[in-house]
Amino acid sequence: MSISTPATSPEPSVAATNNAAAATQERLKGLFADRLGMRFLEVTPERLRAELDVREELCTVPGVMHGGAIMAFADTLGGVATSLNLPPGAGTTTIESKTNFLAAARTGQTIQGECVPLHRGKQTLVWQTRVTVDDRLVALVTQTQIVLAAKQTPQEVLGALFSEKPLDEQKVLLATLERAGAGLYRAWAANEPDATTKASLLAAAEREDENARTLEDTHRA
Fold first, then answer.
1. Helix, coil or strand: residue 115
2. Does residue 39 sit in the same domain as residue 99?
3. pLDDT exceeds 90 at position 30
4. In the listed set 122, 148, 174, which residue is the last one of a domain according to the structure?
5. Which among 191, 217, 213 has a CA at the least distance from the CA of 202?
6. Is there a single domain that holds both residue 71 and residue 103?
7. Ramachandran assignment for 104, one of left (phi > 0), alpha (psi -120 to 50 degrees), beta (any other)
8. 118 and 211 co-located in one domain
9. Domain coverage including residue 197
10. Higher pLDDT, residue 149 or 8
11. DSSP for 49-98?
12. Does 3 map to a domain?
């Protein structure tokens, strides 16, 4: 996987950073990050910072924070960071995560996490999170997030069929669809007991055929 360097962005103001952190905190209220006890300190597309108090219920043995809690803390930072870099309507999920544990975090301490991008591409984003206690490195987490494309509307799906084709091919394709539409109208008419509705369906089929003939004539011209 190639590593890309993100374009330089203007430094956000302190007020904007604080507002984004507060908005993220509110958006995740009642969800896992909130239950975990995370507090977001800085939220930008280029860097996230958060902290979490080590509590007894997060420990693997009395007084020592569970490694899974540390990983969940870092994974949440990477997921939120990715969400700030997604195109409209897209989603994300973690597909790979690697953690190096370097020291223990103990009850009463506060872990801090700083998450920065190593790679931001169209399909995947890679983040590295440093988890520290008082500047002492507790864990280093690297995770890969995949971009889940937004679900297309039927209109977008049809538009995609035409968008990259030359004009002549667009006409041929549309004529084919018009012929298919005419066939559907006639099939519906064949099973329609109401005479008025049947006539309307057959008339619609004729219009579809006429549209197809027009497209075919202009294509041949």
1. strand
2. yes
3. yes
4. 148
5. 191
6. yes
7. beta
8. no
9. 154-220
10. 149
11. EEEEE--GGGEEETTEE-HHHHHHHHHHHHHHHHHTTPPTT-EEEEEEEE
12. no
